């Protein structure tokens, strides 16, 4: 039997939802690993809607669950229905929707609040000692919910201009968590908390390197499951 994995999305599109390449990469690696995947998203309004051609916000209103259904090919459920007892692991792809819709990190940084269903999902898997996989900006969810945990968002300095959001590592440290510096094709495993993280698009890198890094995260999650 393959592992049962829940994948949690935050919309559709890097600037206001889930990063599409990251979600796709996670799904490909999960498929290759023989996992049985079900996809979830919170049934809430997006913080904003961004015109991805212009990179600027619009006056539109969109729903996170409805937009996430684009990535899930319609096969998706409300996050409120997710039961940790029915799964072996949970994975959160990144994208600014994580920092806007799943929590308020985009506005409040380390003082952010986390959506109640996101927080309860993380706590349920953690309490059951089931692994949690996070990539790109989504490790901040773990940093906020589990003080003292270890995560990576890449590097804590903007090495060669490849890590423009390196200050995120400092904010994670200010939350009482340990940031572990890793390259884009690597992941970090916090064995005590069963949290696996990789930086993905927090690094300016070729797509195949980001894909490979997400692969290491998925593989480690499946090993722990």
UniProtKB/TrEMBL annotation:
InterPro entries named among the record's database cross-references: Class_I_gatase-like
Record NCBIfam families: PRK11780.1
Protein name (record): GAL3A protein
Organism listed in the record: Cochlearius cochlearius (Boat-billed heron)
Protein encoded by which gene: Gatd3a_0
């Amino acid at each position: 039997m393959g592992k049962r994995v829940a994948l949690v999305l935050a919309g559709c599109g890097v600037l206001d939802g889930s990063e599409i390449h990251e979600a796709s990469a996670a799904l490909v690696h999960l498929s290759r690993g023989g996992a049985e995947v079900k996809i979830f998203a919170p049934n809430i309004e997006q913080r904003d809607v961004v015109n991805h051609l212009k990179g600027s916000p619009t006056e539109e209103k969109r729903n996170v669950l409805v937009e996430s259904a684009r990535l899930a090919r319609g096969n998706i459920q409300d996050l409120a229905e997710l039961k940790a007892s029915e799964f072996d692991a949970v994975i959160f792809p990144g994208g600014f929707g994580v920092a806007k819709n799943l929590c308020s990190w985009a506005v409040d940084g380390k003082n952010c609040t986390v959506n109640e269903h996101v927080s309860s999902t993380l706590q349920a898997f953690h309490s059951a000692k089931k692994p949690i996989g996070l990539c790109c900006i989504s490790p901040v969810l773990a940093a906020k919910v589990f003080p003292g945990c270890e995560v990576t968002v890449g590097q804590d300095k903007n090495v060669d201009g490849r890590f423009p959001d390196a200050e995120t590592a400092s904010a994670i440290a200010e939350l009482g968590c340990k940031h572990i510096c890793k390259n884009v094709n690597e992941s970090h495993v916090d064995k005590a908390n069963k949290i696996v993280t990789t930086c993905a698009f927090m690094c300016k890198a070729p797509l195949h390197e980001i894909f490979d890094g997400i692969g290491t995260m998925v593989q480690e999650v499946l090993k722990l499951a």
